[in-house]
Amino acid sequence: MTSAAPFNALPDTPNLLELSGITTAYGRIEVLHGLELRIGAGETVALVGANGAGKSTLLRVISGLQPASGALRFDGADLARTDAAERVRRGIVQVPEGRQVFTGLSVEDNLLLGAYTRRDKKAIQQDLEKQYQRFPILKDKRRLPAGTLSGGQQQMLAMGRALMARPRLLLLDEPSMGLAPLIIEQIFAIVGELKQEGITLFVVEQNAAEALAVADRGYVLETGSIVAEGHGQALLDNDSVKAAYLGG
Amino acid sequence: MLSEFFQFTFSGVTLGAIYALVALGFTLIYNASHVINFAQGEFLMIGGMGTVVLLEAGAPLPLAMLGALLLAGVAGVVLYKLAIAPAKKANVVTLIIITIGASIFLRGLAQFFWGKQYHALPRFSATESISVGGATLLTQSLWVLGIAVVLVVALALFFNRSRLGKAILATSMNKDAARLAGIKTQTILTLAFGISALLGAVAGVIVAPITFTAYDVGIMLGLKGFVAAAIGGLGSSTGAIVGGLLLGLSEAYTAGYISSDYKDAVPFVIILAILFFLPNGLFGSRAVERV
Ligand SMILES: Nc1ncnc2c1ncn2[C@@H]1O[C@H](COP(=O)(O)OP(=O)(O)O)[C@@H](O)[C@H]1O
Ligand SMILES: [Mg+2]
Fold it and tell me: Does A83 fall in a domain?
């Protein structure tokens, strides 16, 4: 499994995100080793890999929370000097692992904070209504503190919050983590909707089957290096990927 | 008997309001950065002493106060930028020690430039006191209470209604998530230190006509504000206000009914009791929420 990628499936749309030679460390421990990765505009790309492979770290690098060496280009522009807030403003928005909602704030405040980088009040209000249509349960609970929601509802809130920023590239870090199968289905149905709406998606999952099924392409990350890359279904059918990540 | 009780209650509530403001400053910084800012008391000193110095330089009282508040606000921002932000990778204990160092430094500066004398600020109203139910009520106490109430209401509105206030709350609840929402958390922390310094300075200015002010008043006022915040659970604004009032009242009753010699021991007895019986304070959230 450490051999080079068996597929070379480049996106047929222009690149929205391009990473090259991305290396990062926590203290002296290097956790990403010169990653190369690209996401085409409108694509849905999955990143699968075991716990501790470095998936969340990669998303933190893309969002600007974790410094890294190497080059990061978004929509053609180099991001080296672009801070996290500016990346959000440009449309790189993340739904972090474990939801990370603002537990003490109301559901509605959480959603509105998602639009923090925006100034178009009217459109923000319309987008809020859109999220309530997408996630009716959030409307029912809009006055309640986010901490009172169930895990699945918090996942929806975190997704709604991210969508309030009008993402061009939505990064989803293990959206199915810790959720019941029925809820996971709901979450991935919404991921499918977002894909239909044309949002470029980067879905990180340990749950490789779900993620690769919805994705156009996928990457497999193993201890900080990409070891396989290909079309979603092809990766799903790939024997070595199956053996390593799908339990045979 | 009753008039005595009123008298002690008045002075207790007045002191309590001051402690509450200091405690709110501790709370704000603690929530935003998890730092217990032991330089908080110095902002009171800068408020009071700054006003004294500007008055002596010929400024009218309102202008002198405004200048002192500004100076304190700047001191708060500088404290964050120069001492806290560069050490952001350090652990919380280190940061707390840095704030203790900063407080010694600020006190040293004040002593050097402004001297060691004690000063009284003129009270805000011409009348010194009024009589209520046989007790003497200082007009300055009314100023203290009025201003404290206005500040508390303004803070509540700021945090519950404004976008910026909510961004501060969001940052204090989950810094990474706040950054992912596009909030510039560095700016937010700077703001928290600035607001906190202003709160302290206001407390320092309004109490100075009652208690005198000097380069070293920040030590005791800061410590008592900290105790008030700890009584309230360090992190709860309601707790800070209740803690401040409880502390002010216990001090005043101790001084009145027992002896003023024991007055300053009250906060330390209380803090020991709190640490022993209620480590999360009266209004403390469960520890898990604060990790
Ligand atoms: N804040 C951190 N400090 C030190 N090491 C970390 C930190 N976060 C993650 N790591 C380490 O980096 C590696 C990658 O972690 P992570 O990106 O969270 O993996 P994944 O999301 O794939 O489970 C792991 O070995 C993890 O222990
Ligand atoms: Mg992870």
Answer: yes
